[in-house]
Write a structure and sequence with these properties.
By secondary structure, this protein is α+β, with helices and mostly antiparallel strands. The protein has 13 helices and 20 strands. The chain folds into 3 domains: 142 residues, no CATH class; 149 residues, no CATH class; 136 residues, Sandwich (Jelly Rolls), CATH 2.60.120.260. 28% of the residues lie in helices and 31% in strands.
Amino acid sequence: MPNLFVIPGPRAVAGAWLFAQIVLAFSEPSPHRGSPSGEFFAPGSLHQVRLNIATGDLDALRKVPRGYVPATVTLDGEVCRNVAVHLKGATGSFRPVDDKPGLTLSFDRFRPGTRFRGLRKLHLNNSVEDPAYVNEFIGAELFRAAGVPAPRVSLAWVELNGRVLGAYVLKEGFAEEFLAGYFRRTDGNFYDTDLGHDINQRMRRSGGRGEAQEQSDLEKLTLAAEERDLALRWDRLEHTLDLDRFVNFLVMEVMIGHRDGYSLARNNFRIYHDMDSGRLMFFPHGMDQLFGKADLPWEPHFAGLVARAVMETPNGRRQYRDRFLKLFNQLYQVERLTNLVARTQEPWRNILPRQERLAMEREGALVMDRIVQRKANLKWQLGQPELKPLEFVEGVARLAGWVAVDEPGGGRMDQVQDVDGKSVLRIQAGPSTTASWRSKVRLARGHYRFEALARTHGVKPLPFGKAQGASMRVSGRERTEAGRTGDSPWLPLVFEFQVEAVTEESELVCELRGSAGEVCWDKATLRLLRLP
């Protein structure tokens, strides 16, 4: 077992000091500074966690992973008995208890009033979707720097019944002490997404007064978001939502590519009702996959109801644009962010076996590269002139400006004359192809159909994923029909969609996901129809 508590040498002390300076460059002084929990989440800290769970309770976790069982937890040498533990994680990150499970530790569930260093709940993330072990830390720091509360993050080395589970990301739970760092009152309604994934659905309430089913604050926000009069909508949103912080929340989710968050996927978020202001506030969550798509549009299609409601108003759109430029210039500083990646990984240097450490550092280098690529693409996007609304003649608009994206290894993409004499967009697949031709347009509110004639030859699906074959869609929206595989003559491909905003930039996509074959789109038939 590695010794986690050796006395650091001069190099380690210097590294910890620099780490702290980088952190302070991004965020205001912590509201928890000087408290036991503040010391626990001190920059550069790495904790040792040993769990002991009885055999019968392990069997219970195998059968009901989300059910709490008692455990004895030794955390940095301090023994905590009767701690409630259950498995955590979603589709990509969940692992069973006999693997490397994500774990939630609740110190007060079986012993009300119990705290560890002032904390009632901690999460141990197995980080299987972030092998660099850095994204949660960077995301939380950037959100806090933008004025949006986010849980504190540290690192942990974990054992379960003597079995080494290894490296984990340790996160503060969304509990009363988290709220106390930002709000005078902590008795407002606190919602998460266990039951519903947007405010117009019933959500699970984990804190607040009165009956759990009473969610009138969410109902008021829903009514405000669904108000059709845009001037009245903005006024109603101002009375129910912390708009200033919500705009920052949207900006940061898009800027750092939190594609599994609220605004883009209606996932991984929390909502708190501040009793002093009477307004609701959104918090980020589940930030283990960031910076993954360098060319994510800075004004994307928003999935969350409140995100769309804000962006459909002139005030909301203007504030989003102004705030994006401001926060991008203030916070997206590549050198500091990449240094932060390196310093977040520093505590592992003397802990991990050499091969594991090198693998983690390679993953960290990939994160650094994604940070650089995202910055460059956003800078390019922000320098582009605003698209003019697409012109329609008798309800039809012809499409141009097609750009090749993700050209496949072992394949090719080109605009050519095919054997029938047609001018086509062509994708020839390599062994693992997720390639597309794309064109951006600005559209007014309305219902549209994107269509063209397409021909396929020998298209084979990938051995993974649901979306396969040749298809057409709009970026940020799911396919509505199965993709075309095999061989087919010239037949229509179609995608219908709705634009709810007054105007919205949409990226039209002609896509192939496959392991072999070819697809061609007839350029003369690529068009957008405005439907009644």
